[in-house]
């Protein structure tokens, strides 16, 4: 059964994008139109405007709503897409007025994700986000069933129907969460195996359509789908890569980020993005040819912080230099900006520079040495054994541990930081 009594869904779409005074960042009509096309819509026109704050009834105000209604009638539009998050009541009011389907930004991105998900867990995560999104609209959508007629024998089953649908949604969400928990546990086992084998993980991150999948294919000789469109890749892909110094690493291609990525989607895809959180290094792929690259860099870093990966070291990969008439090069970190490597993944320019840099980077990321650990740090000792980092161990007359280790330096640094210890002091003793 349809959630609402709506007209049939079509592909001809009118876009609505409003500049709100409370939002400093200017909207991007080109990106919004590309999002709509990525979902399969045929963009007819875009209605723009500005408001100090959203209208409670229509979001855009009554005058603008009438203007939108005239456009829908003129172009015989089947769909109106808002570049904003709408309340269920606003969505319902607009559909009654316009007599066509209305979709907000969250619903649009969810639709794209649903089309692009290929793996089992990717489909589960999309469904979870869709159900959470739908549950807020279910309450408003069934209000005609929530009312009961007065009088003995005249009370309808409306509230029972609503509660039944709520319960079914809640049960399905619970089932999906359980399945995703199993997937997350399986992935965690894989990460632990890689840590024990001292195989570093490098995660590709970046704004959608920056060329992550093309770079991934170039480096690993894989055949991951890459196209000039938003969210071409949704499911994470892992491949082994041997660096020039024969160092093995795992390269991870993840979903591209986008400005105003709905928070519910970030939460739903947390298990997928966990590969980024647990990575040893992030390659932040940037479209060097795009005039808005600085804004996109800021947006990506915002999402990285939101998922808790801001502690992971990052290298900026400026891609598509062939379009910007630049040459391959490496710019070292300057205290403000991280290391920058300029390449073209499609034209295979600067790839050797990137591989050599990764080889040198990870060659210095393995700690081999002996530390002196007091007996009160038995918990840290147990963690080191869990990571299979202990080569030999002796205990002195005081009961302290003398441990010879071989372990990834970033992992050792993290464990010592949690124990509030300094490596130089442990070595000095």
Can you give keywords for this protein?
429 residues, disordered N terminus, 15 helices, four-stranded parallel sheet, alpha/beta
Describe this structure in words.
With 429 residues, this protein is of the alpha/beta class. The chain has 15 helices and 14 strands. Strands 6-7-5-8-9-11-10 form a seven-stranded mixed beta sheet, sandwiched between helices. It has a four-stranded parallel beta sheet with strand order 2-1-3-4, sandwiched between helices. Helix 4 (105-116) packs antiparallel against helix 5 (120-141) and helix 5 (120-141) runs antiparallel to helix 7. The radius of gyration is 26 Å and the shape is globular.
Question: Gist?
Answer:
The protein has 429 residues and is α/β, with parallel strands linked by helices.
Write the SSE topology.
Elements: E1 12-20, H1 29-38, E2 42-51, H2 62-75, E3 79-82, H3 88-98, E4 101-103, H4 105-116, H5 120-141, H6 143-146, H7 158-196, E5 201-206, H8 212-220, E6 237-242, E7 248-253, H9 263-268, H10 270-277, E8 281-287, H11 293-306, E9 314-319, E10 329-331, E11 340-342, H12 351-363, E12 366-373, H13 378-386, E13 390-395, E14 401-408, H14 409-418, H15 423-428
Parallel strand pairs: 1-2, 1-3, 3-4, 5-7, 5-8, 8-9, 9-11
Antiparallel strand pairs: 6-7, 10-11, 12-14, 13-14
Helix pairs in contact: 4-5, 5-7
